[in-house]
Design brief:
Keywords: Metal-binding, Methyltransferase, Transferase, Zinc
CATH class: Alpha Beta
Distance between the termini: 53 Å
Largest sheet: 8 strands, parallel
Radius of gyration: 21 Å
Number of domains: 1
Shape: globular
Helix content: 40-55%
CATH architecture: Alpha-Beta Barrel
Order of helices and strands: HHEHHHEHHEHHEHEHEHEHEHHHHH
Protein name: Betaine-homocysteine methyltransferase
Number of helices: 18
Organism: Seriola dumerili
Strand content: 5-15%
GO molecular function: betaine-homocysteine S-methyltransferase activity; zinc ion binding
Number of strands: 8
Cofactor: Zn(2+)
């Protein structure tokens, strides 16, 4: 796409809920991009992208288990294409594909590498910047929780891991930084403290639910700790569905306001329904990670999420594992009036199914309306499956022997002990 590409707005459909929308462009003139805090301070909606590790695992570029992002160096064309699809769907942020790219994770449990963490992170930054420059998008460099923290390494050791990743982000001049996917707020605080040394905007998201982090610290108290550590944006990502994540961010917002502090708020949930999850979220579900498809949210579920997040005062709204570009497009379409445009990807998607007016079958044409899709209760097509599962509840976290990490591959003896433990728990 070239700069200043006009979008064809489906004004009537959008105005139905939110009033008229003026034509806009998806591309901003070169050099005219506003920064993240500038956008949020102005009350603008920032749409994030989706879950790269899950999306690329399904496409054959990421190994489930390690969930590491070497595809940025091994298969840059796959990562670049996914970035472009999220941009076309309406994302304002190209998050570098650097999830779990710390060296201690890349070398964990026999996961040998042809690339170093630095090489992967450099490639990821270049790809994100290349695609961000094709639209009005910012580049976010991200760090996440480490095996070293779970194995009780010192604060200095863990911070050194973040610092090594940060050096690449500084060299590549990303627009802002995200500390994401932390189960323990203490480790997230350490990450924020390191990221703040750059002077760039810092967002921090925990993968927790209403029960708080794995040490029982409430969402409100977690948020206060993160803001005091230096994060300007706080929120939730991964582990839970949109409804749970929005609820948890509300609790964080209440905690920050009660403490007399200020912050912006973000939400990047799963694209899976998780009403049956416990404190650790979807990783405890028996279906994790290979049988989650029956739980996937529809695009209409996503529109509901976007509206609920917006009404809760959340202005950075995106997604994590399970989110595909069409999910992000649904967020962008729901908030089209607030943003002033719909994304390029909507050119092939009639809002609320309006494109079905062209279908050859009359009963399908009859579905070209909002009230049909809003009221639909999708069937699973699985007659003997339960509606909810019983999550695993091993009750282990930082410091437990089962979570001590190692460079060597998991042995057969170690696996047998786990298999036996799992059999007894069901």
């Amino acid at each position: 796409m070239s700069a200043q590409v006009p979008l064809q707005l489906q004004k009537d459909s959008v105005a139905e809920k939110s009033g008229p929308v003026t034509a806009a462009t998806i591309m901003a003139p070169a050099g005219a991009k506003k920064g993240l805090l500038e956008r949020l301070d102005a009350g603008e909606v920032v749409i994030g992208d989706g879950g790269f590790v899950f999306a690329l695992e399904k496409r054959g570029y990421v190994k489930a288990g390690p969930w590491t992002p070497e595809a940025a160096a091994e298969h840059p064309e796959a990562v670049r294409q996914l970035h472009r699809e999220f941009l076309r769907a309406g994302s304002n942020v190209m998050q570098t594909f650097t999830f779990y790219a710390s060296d201690d994770k890349l070398e964990n449990r026999g996961h040998t590498q042809r690339f170093t963490g630095q090489q992967i992170n450099e490639a990821a930054c270049d790809l994100a910047r290349e695609v961000a420059n094709e639209g009005d998008a910012l580049v976010a460099g991200g760090v996440s929780q480490t095996p070293s923290y779970l194995s009780c390494k010192s604060e200095d050791d863990v911070k050194a891991i973040f610092k090594k990743q940060l050096d690449v982000f500084v060299q590549k001049n990303v627009d802002f930084l995200i500390a994401e996917y932390f189960e323990h707020v203490e480790e997230a605080e350490w990450a924020v403290q390191v990221l703040k040394t750059t002077g760039k905007p810092v967002a921090a998201t925990l993968c927790i639910g209403p029960d708080g982090d794995l040490n029982g610290i409430s969402p409100g108290d977690c948020a206060v700790k993160l803001v005091k550590a230096g994060a300007q944006i706080v929120g939730i990502n991964c582990h839970f569905d949109p409804e749970t994540c929005v609820k948890t961010v509300k609790m964080m917002k209440e905690g920050v306001e009660k403490a007399g502090l200020k912050a912006h708020y973000m939400s990047q949930p799963l694209a899976y329904h998780t009403p049956d999850c416990n404190r650790q979220g979807f990783i405890d579900l028996p279906e994790f990670p290979f049988s989650l498809e029956p739980r996937i949210l529809t695009r209409w579920d996503m529109q509901k999420y976007a509206r609920e997040a917006y009404n809760a005062g959340i202005r950075y709204i995106g997604g994590c594992c399970g989110f595909e570009p069409y999910h992000i497009r649904a967020l962008a379409e729901e908030l089209a009036a607030e943003r002033g445009f719909i994304p390029a990807g909507s050119e092939k998607h009639g809002i609320w199914g309006s494109g079905l007016e062209m279908h050859t079958k009359p009963w399908v044409r009859a579905r070209a309306r909002r009230d049909y899709w809003e009221k639909l209760k999708p069937a699973s097509g699985r007659p003997f499956c339960p509606s909810m599962a019983t999550p695993d509840g091993w009750g282990v976290t930082k410091g437990h022997a089962d979570l001590m990490q190692q460079k060597e591959a998991t042995s057969q003896e170690q696996l047998k002990a786990l298999f036996d433990k799992a059999s007894k728990s069901h």
